[in-house]
Amino acid sequence: MNRFDIRKVRDDLNVLRGLYPELLDDEELWIDTLEGETDFNGVLSRILDEVSGSEELLAGIKARKAQIADRQKRIEERIEKLRGLIDSLMEQADVAKVELPEATISRRRVPPAVVVTDEDAIPRIYGHEAWKLDKKKLKEALEEGFEIAGAYLSNGGQSISIRRS
Length: 165
Known about the structure:
Oligomer: single chain
Largest sheet: 3 strands, antiparallel
Order of helices and strands: HHHEEEHEE
Shape: elongated
Strand content: 5-15%
Number of strands: 5
């Protein structure tokens, strides 16, 4: 027997329908009969309790996911700050590569990237058929010195590569 006794309630419903088909014409009498002769209401209550408990679990999981997402963001920010610290120290020491027992750290130039400030202002020639921005074409034009409303080249920057064995 399962915890909801659904099979028994279904069997009881079928028996009552067979024995007293006239009860189906009077909704109030049918509901009273179900309540008095079966565990219909009890099963519904237990199922509802299960739904409520599951909803509470889901709410808790959603809240926990939000907490974990916040924690993830803080850790990602910490990693970026620590990587920036590595970059800063290596720049100050004028060192491009350091080999340590646990990793090799190297600084490398990052090419300028396209920064789109207003996609709607960019001429359609820098896009695809269904007009999708073509950053490669846009970057080529910007590198050639064209001024294009809605986009510019960033100054590039530095990136840290950490390889672990």
